[in-house]
Amino acid sequence: MLEKDIERVLVSESEIDAICKRLGAQITKDYAGQKPLIVGLLKGCMPFMAELIKHIDLYCEIELMGVSSYHGGISSSADIRITKDLEITVKDRHILIAEDIVDTGKTLDVIVKLLYHRGAASVDVVTLLDKPAGRVLEFVPKYIGTVIPKEFVVGFGLDYDEMYRNLPYVGVLKPEVYKK
Ligand code: IMP
């Protein structure tokens, strides 16, 4: 049903699986001896974060923050809203933000600064996808699943107008879907 709206698969289920294993092993190594706080940015982080944390072999805590930058369209807005804030203090914590995609870099610029402002000891980012051609701010995520071209993608957490998050892979949406 959803598949008919997809032009092509960009990152398959098995590729996502391999990415999560690779990133989880790297994070386990880099944070050895620490108890990081993994902060997922809702809603896009959900499937990626759920898969990734299975491969992180550390004592770590999980928290969620609701952040919205797209308001129904296919391009980021400068208006970044926190729709659900953290419920714990981040002071002196080593934070790893889990994100679905970095595009313009605006969302993470705001959130990283906010967490440092609240006293975090370190703030780094793990993202499933990086779309560097979309950047308007200089922002380099520490952990990147895979780099994608400047195309609008959906699936594995990523939405168009709140739909397609439940696709098990990342695909390019047919332009006629959002031109309707
Ligand atoms: P940024 O602030 O422009 O880096 O945007 C980050 C947010 O924009 C992500 O968390 C996504 O929710 C959304 N986003 C960016 N590119 C795409 C895309 O290709 N498909 C769906 N959502 C996207």
Short account of what is shown:
The protein has 180 residues and is of the alpha/beta class. The chain contains four helices and nine strands, in the order βαβαβββαββββα.
Describe the protein in words.
- The chain has 180 residues and is α/β, with parallel strands linked by helices.
- The chain has helices spanning 13-30, 46-53, 106-117, 175-179, and strands at residues 6-11, 37-42, 61-68, 81-84, 94-102, 122-130, 143-147, 153-154, 170-173.
- The strands form 2 sheets. The protein has a 6-stranded mixed sheet.
- Strand 5 (94-102), helix 3 and strand 6 form a beta-alpha-beta unit.
- The longest helix is centred in the first third of the chain and has 18 residues, at 13-30.
- The radius of gyration is 16 Å and the shape is globular.
- It starts with 5 loop residues before the first strand and ends with a helix.
- It binds inosinic acid (IMP).
- Inosinic acid binds at residues 44, 69-70, 76, 99-107, 131, 152-154, 158-159.
- Inosinic acid (IMP) binds at residues 44, 69-70, 76, 99-107, 131, 152-154, 158-159.
What topology does this entry show?
Elements lengths: L5 E6 L1 H18 L6 E6 L3 H8 L7 E8 L12 E4 L9 E9 L3 H12 L4 E9 L12 E5 L5 E2 L15 E4 L1 H5 L1
Parallel strand pairs: 2-3, 2-5, 5-6, 6-7
Antiparallel strand pairs: 1-9, 3-4, 8-9
Helix pairs in contact: 1-2
The structure holds inosinic acid.
